């Protein structure tokens, strides 16, 4: 089953994390692969997940924001990191060891052209029916919406960012 | 800060659970109060949260679905349970012990007239600025949208329920 969480509203990654925790609690094996997000700082969810045993694994494959908020890395470096993360996803899907694989911010990696939609579609077609995949990130391409079994659009109705309130520990990471 | 997750799409409760896990990971104290959801069966998130120590607490105050899916309880019983859950919320907010309080499905408890919107608004006005509250559930009344600092609408674009696939352990609970 393929789940897709997209849209401009807050909650896509946290929703996927909640889903991962739920699955883990029911005895499932979970892998979380994060595109974009980097190892530079630890998120709250990462700190908890690292204590939850061997049935849940979180890997941050990204190098941080791309082209914004002070990012000075060449795009080629971001591309390399995203491709490596996609390779990990391929391997994990073919091994069939995990019941749920979360590909966090993969939609963003596609829209920034770090990875090719064609490759992602090829990969998703190989997912066995009894396994679950969650795709997150704003601006999901229509091909991913078509291939998914469940799509929720997270619509921003109101956000305190617009009032100038900044991202905070425990809220945004 | 008041967060409101509403709409007909999947992910509102899991999103709030993910947010709770994130906050916990960053050293916050978290209380989860579930309206509607009952003690009858254990959700995946509940199993994990019960292992995460004293800084996170989950209380299921509900008696299950109201008036649907075989529910035969008189409405008065559901009302009593919801009122008691709201009392717990009041106490927790006034004690200021928790940094994040999640009031799961409170919107549904209001729209089913188990509790009064007036009482909920009165309560939310007492929340100190440095504390966070998350409200979840479809059909949020406009008064709650107005009072909230962040509102995400979870819009169902596609759902496998519509193909006749039933709720599953690890996916829906």
Which terms summarize this structure?
homodimer, alpha/beta, 35% helix, 173 residues, 6 helices
Show the helix and strand layout.
2 copies of one chain form a homodimer.
Chain A: E1 2-6, H1 12-25, E2 30-34, H2 44-49, E3 56-60, H3 75-95, E4 100-104, H4 106-111, H5 117-124, E5 132-136, H6 142-147, E6 150-158
Parallel strand pairs in A: 1-5, 1-6, 2-3, 2-4, 4-5
Describe this structure in words.
The structure is a homodimer of 173-residue chains. Chain A is α/β, with parallel strands linked by helices. Helix content of chain A is 35%, strand content 20%. Chain A has six helices and six strands, in the order E-H-E-H-E-H-E-H-H-E-H-E. Chain A has a six-stranded parallel beta sheet, with helices on both faces. The longest helix of chain A has 21 residues, at 75-95. The mean pLDDT of chain A is 96. The interface between A and B is large, with 54 and 52 residues. Strand 6 of chain A pairs antiparallel with strand 6 of chain B, so a sheet runs across the interface.
> In what range is the share of β-strand residues of chain A?
15-25%
Mean pLDDT of chain A: 96
Helix content of chain A: 25-40%
Seen as an oligomer or otherwise, the chain set is: homodimer
Distance between the termini of chain A: 27 Å
**Poorly predicted residue ranges of chain A:** none
Based on secondary structure, the structural category of chain A is alpha/beta
Radius of gyration based on Cα positions of chain A: 15 Å
Most extensive contact: A-B, 54 and 52 residues
């Amino acid at each position: 089953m393929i789940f897709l969480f997209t849209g401009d509203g807050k909650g896509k990654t946290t929703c996927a994390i909640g889903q991962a925790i739920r699955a883990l609690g029911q005895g499932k094996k979970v892998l979380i692969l994060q595109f974009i997000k980097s190892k530079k700082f630890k998120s709250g969810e990462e700190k908890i997940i690292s204590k939850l045993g061997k049935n849940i694994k979180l890997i941050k494959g990204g190098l941080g924001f791309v082209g914004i908020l002070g990012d000075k890395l060449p795009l080629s470096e971001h591309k390399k990191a995203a491709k490596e993360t996609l390779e990990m996803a391929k391997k994990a899907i073919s091994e069939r060891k995990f019941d749920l694989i979360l590909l966090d911010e993969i939609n963003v990696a596609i829209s920034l052209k770090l990875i090719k939609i064609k490759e992602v579609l090829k990969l998703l077609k190989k997912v066995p029916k009894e396994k679950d995949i969650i795709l997150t990130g704003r601006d999901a391409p229509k091909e991913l919406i078509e291939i998914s079994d469940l799509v929720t659009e997270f619509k921003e109705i109101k956000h305190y960012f617009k009032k100038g309130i900044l991202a905070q520990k425990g809220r945004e990471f």
